[in-house]
Amino acid sequence: MSIFKQKRKEDRKELIYYLELTEKVSGNTIGRIVDITIGGILMISETPADVGKVYDMVLRLPEMIDDVESIPMKIRCVRSEKDPHSHYHYSGYQFRDLDPHYPHIIEELISQYQF
């Protein structure tokens, strides 16, 4: 996973929860967020992601923040690797066209749940 840290522009923050990321249309859980910034996320999943593909997802918050229960988001996969020690895959994503209200919610999420 060293490539993720070498190319990362911001220090991502680990949260006390592995928050679920679900597909917007189907509602299926795709993976869990390992760490997050206002610019993107690192997700762990059982299936690899397609680098370059934009996904339409929803992040459900552990509790309401400023009257928001979930954050709809488009995320673009910028890298994906299989964990050599398990059957899981780690994928890095950038937020695309994130509503201007949500970076504040993400900052609050990090503030409240960072460890």
How is this fold's topology laid out?
Elements: H1 2-7, E1 13-14, E2 20-23, E3 29-36, E4 40-45, E5 54-65, E6 68-82, E7 89-96, H2 102-113
Antiparallel strand pairs: 1-3, 2-3, 2-5, 3-4, 4-7, 5-6, 6-7
- Stretches where pLDDT is under 50 for at least 5 consecutive residues are none
CATH topology: Thrombin, subunit H
Helical element count? 2
Number of domains: 1
The backbone outline, from C-alpha atoms, is globular
* Relevant CATH superfamily: predicted glycosyltransferase like domains
CATH class: Mainly Beta
**What CATH architecture label applies?**
Beta Barrel
The string of secondary-structure elements, in order, is HEEEEEEEH
Q: How many whole angstroms does the radius of gyration measure?
A: 13 Å
Account of the protein in words:
- With 115 residues, the chain is α+β, with helices and mostly antiparallel strands.
- 16% of the residues lie in helices and 48% in strands.
- The protein has a single domain (2-113), classed as Beta Barrel (Thrombin, subunit H).
- Strands 2-3-4-7-6-5 form a 6-stranded antiparallel beta barrel.
- The protein starts with a helix and ends with a helix.
